[in-house]
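Q: For a teaching session next week I want to show students how multiple molecules come together into a single three-dimensional assembly. I've collected the sequence lines for a complex. Could you give me the predicted structure tokens for the whole thing so I can convert them for display?
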Amino acid sequence: MKNKVGFFQKDSTRSVISSLIAIAIGLLVGFIIMLISQPDNALQGISILLTGGFRDGMSSLGNVLYLAVPVMMTGLSVAFAYKMGEFNIGVPGQYVVGAFVGLYVGIKWTFLPNSIAWLVAILLGGIAGAIWAFVPGILKAKCNVNVVISGIMMNYVGLLLVIQGVKSWLYESTGAQSQVISGARAIPNAGLDVIFPDSSANFGFIIACLLCVLAWVIMNKTTFGYELKATGFNKDAAKYAGMNETKNIILALVLAGFFAGCGGAIAYLGGTGKALQISEVLPAEGFNGIPVALLGLSNPIGCIFASLFIAYVNVGGSFVQNIFPIEIVDIITGVIVYFASFTLFIKLMFARRDAKREAKREAEELKARGGEQS
Amino acid sequence: MDYAIEMLHITKEFPGIKANDDITLQVKQGEIHALLGENGAGKSTLMSILFGLYQPDIGTIKIHGQEVKINDPNDANKYKIGMVHQHFKLVHNFTVLENIILGIEQTGFAGKLKTSEARKKVMELSEHYHLNVDPDAKIEDITVGMQQRVEILKMLFRDNEILIFDEPTAVLTPQEIDELMHIMKDLIKEGKSIIFITHKLNEIKAVADRCTIIRKGRYVDTVNVADVTKEELSEKMVGHKVSFVVDKTPAKPGDTVLSVKNLTYKPKGANKPLLNNVSFDVHKGEIVCIAGIDGNGQSELIFNISGLQDPTSGTITMNGKDITHDTIRHRNDDGIAVIPEDRHKHGLVLDYTVAENMILKSYYKEPFSHHGFIDFNEMYKYSDHLVEEYDVRSGEGSKSIARGMSGGNQQKAIVAREIESDNDLLIAVQPTRGLDVGAIEFIHKQLVKHRDANKAVLLVSLELDEVMTVSDRILVMYEGEIVGELDPKKTDVKELGLYMAGSKRGAGYEK
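A: Of course. Below is the structure for the complete assembly, covering every listed component.
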């Protein structure tokens, strides 16, 4: 049976439209909060929020790219694990461990030449994240420990170890935080500083996008991805078909951890003076991966756009701070991100409305036809 | 003529499939009217329309000559239509009486439940129709047959006049089926009308007065049951002649393919082995059937051979190679194919498409995989071929999601995948469970064809007819042991039953 599927009926189109609607609802609610807080400035506020990403031209846009990278990678990590049936809530831990290892390698391994130090640092950061995800993975596979619980525990183990590590080896005595990567050893700008002058955009953005594409290819084109998805959908059938389901669960989480770890390393190796704090708070970029994954409908390519959107709102929000108190701005950006996570829900409503409309249309058509016959 | 209920020219279409296409069903007052059709023929859809769960796209429903519109099950109840669903709708920790009055219960002061009148009525009905139901027993404590009677009482309590039975015998033992038939006959004596949905021809011949046959969503015929033979009925249902005898030549057993020696399986914590010292061989070119009552170790035997469970002691040899503790993947590569007992748990990834399921065991091999990448063109080509050859019906062919297909078609997809895999030994566990005669005949033919291609077939079946007609050799299992080997040509169902009940053991299988 060959049914022609219209542009608006296509699953991918649907996904994009659902995401856009979710964003629109979030912006509307954000606007209402502004109206309640300072009615006179609300219109100005929302317009700044919406145009902030372009406010200073290419410079703002460059910062959007820069800010998108960490959440793109943590979002990818959550999305990848989710497609395999696991909820990787251990992503902040993997992120922060990756960041520490990346920074340490970048700063301390001076025997590496500047030209490749950043690349080695990113890779080792990724491996550190992978190791951090391996623990919940093997606990799940061998002892059936819930990944959410072991993941959260690994978050705090990772965070506290990193704080201790910073204090022991990377301490910047003047600022109660870690040392930062020097411009010379940071990720190169690779010409992005020419396109986006006065911004923090660097080659890390390109790497992150490439990793997303890589993840998409693994998921949808390889036998490995086929196995992982089959295991995620139905562990018993995967086992019956001869797949090694314990190995698959571990590998899925290890890869997810690798992406998060790379994200941490890239974020702190940008040469923008970003430093690891020694306060016991998990970095927000970690958990923000969850709404990114939801907004991107667990699609690696979707994560690229979702993270760009969230970064765009954040950049816009930073300009709104001139008018609104920072708490209100945080609430508004939070609300927008929150509503963005409703994407799947909206997509479901689409499908339902469609089914109804289709049924009605066909009924009428059939009635008309039936009338002719009788 | 006085019809209790008429469904005229009913048409209902779902995306991709026309479930009902101009179907007419007319049921007379006081008759048992059978509705016969294969899985997916549209029986359930038609009944859901009568019960108000779906609205027909075209067509009218008349009750006692009056045109009515049934918008939801409450309307159906108003018109005194009741239904016993295939899967009962009972609250398990409620008593029989509580279940019967649920939804129309009467309450007194401060919402206190008043049951005395209801109890009286239930007892009267139970006595009148010889249902022997204890109103204070909890549902979870009574047998499936009794639960069904509770469902029948629910309808009678609501004074329903038109009773729909949706495949009521699927869950019953032979004795319970006989009793149900008696109850149905008593009901029509009182002027009730019954719509009896089934695909079992013996039952139709036993109780039904008339029978409406539908096929692939279309109306075929309405006949007086007394005027037609079983063969004619099945031909109308399937669309071609069906033979109840499996056509096959005598087996020519060749070399040993599978050899099981002293296999024992005792899981941790079990106080007795689930498999006890089981030994047998399966040869090329024969169908060996493991017969037995459900739960006597058949499932464990197959799990041990296929690798889902690890034997405690003993050996399993495949083509001379010891595979006792081998991985499942290696066993598949060594030529074992399995049609599993639980098609949803083991047989399919329900969220994958038909095509993706067709390569579930071969995705990593050429031609479906090159250097770790899946060749989707090859996958669809292969799947389209199997869908065509095994007549797997679904909305969008190879691209259909397995979850949305009917049970029979899901099973056909699994059978196609396993038989077409490059195997020496095909293990088929209850391959025809829940299927209609057409599909059963088809699968039996495939098994015999596979045997004739000089492959070994190990069949596990609970259906005595299947055991007797398909197999070349019967091994009977009782309490984890093989208690006898029988030749289907030299034995009968009665003798087989003695072995299955554990009251007889064959030569060489004494305790």
